[in-house]
Amino acid sequence: MIRRASLVLVGALMGATAMSVLYAAGVPAEAAGPSTYKELAIFGDVFERVRAQYVTPPNEEKLVENAINGMLSSLDPHSSYMNAQDAADMQTQTKGEFGGIGIEVTMEDELVKVITPIDDTPGARAGILAGDFISEINGEAVRGLKLEEAVDKMRGAVNTPIKLTILRKGADKPIELSVTREVIAIRAVKSRVEGDVGYLRVISFTEKTYDDLEAAIAKIKKEVPADKLKGFVLDLRLNPGGLLDQAIYVSDAFLERGEVVSTRSRNQDDTRRFNASAGDLIDGKPLIVLVNGGSASASEIVAGALQDLKRATVVGTRSFGKGSVQTIIPMGDKGALRLTTALYYTPSGKSIQGTGIAPDIKVEQPLPEELQGRVKAEGESALKGHIQGQSETDEGSGSVAYVPPEAKDDIQLNYALDLLRGTKTDPSFPPNPDKAVVAK
Fold this sequence. Notes:
Strands 1, 2, 14, 15, 18 and 19 form a six-stranded mixed beta sheet that branches. Strands 4, 5, 6, 7, 8 and 9 form a six-stranded antiparallel beta sheet that branches. The chain has a six-stranded mixed beta sheet with strand order 11-12-13-16-17-20, sandwiched between helices. The protein contains nine helices and 20 strands. Helices cover 24% and strands 24% of the residues. The chain starts with 19 loop residues before the first strand and ends in a 19-residue tail after the last helix. The chain has two domains: 97-185, Pdz3 Domain (Roll); 189-435, 2-enoyl-CoA Hydratase, Chain A, domain 1, CATH 3.90.226. The longest helix has 20 residues, at 34-53. With 440 residues, it is of the alpha+beta class.
């Protein structure tokens, strides 16, 4: 497989509405009309009145930032202004590494609960265990903080210390730990062998995703002889998206030819097409892609390309339906403008915007009793002010985004495994590569 030069420099990972984004400098536009400049003069007058006469002195920087966001929020849910800190956080997320201690956490009973320490990181070496509760960070109580706020406090400059107070089941008193931050690389792909099937879970599309995927496939191929390997499952469930170029690379990893995706802006001359190059990393083995309502943006590019080009069978439920591209325009040291500038299209010319990827085989994943009524289907089409997709219908996009923590309870995954092993049959599997759609 031939790797192309980087096509996209940075993206954003923002929950289920993540962006596939391009980095660009400002583009000259036609001058606004006289009436527009009169309205801007009114804005200036209002700003001065508020600044001078409001009952308490306002934060002028916040006033301007909120005014800009008010303007952008009238466009669509994904256009926004990022201050310097927000822009830096976005770059950290897409880079796939940060200064921290290396633990995966969640929030439980108003405390930070450790899901697992990452191997060979400061947290693991300091003795932090899965199931530990962090009650204080540098002497500040965790109660009252949001998870994001607690995580921000644990991250920081490399080689700086952080003090944690840990509550551990069975310990008679809190445990005090001092941990020195290091560069933590986030694994973008997790993998394992399910008997005679290779399982690949792409968590997000960061700068490290393709390299992690390539390494994971090589590891599986070493563990299972080629004549025993039935195929691969590519799990894109709960994947919020990320970098566009990484979505193209991941698609290309399983393709020999064909258009992966195209992006189209309001100027038809700006249409861009991205094609696969020869070289299938899994040597033509059968491939099943899993999607659900948590599969958005870059993950929909991959699912759409592999589905349209008949390289994979898509199993699960309808994906989120975010088919827009955001351009990040730097604003000096003040931050950056994130502006929706294009829509992307699958190889057959379908827009995913507001419709999502419909699976070839629909397999519902039941919710456990304790989550019933608390988790609902969500998609791009339900977002206020979203761009109307060209193929959008009243059915909309999205579905429930839930994956069981235990593989034995994962109906969608087990269906895919049975399909690969031939113990469950379906007329759409395996796809016929001779009928691949090649856009021209």
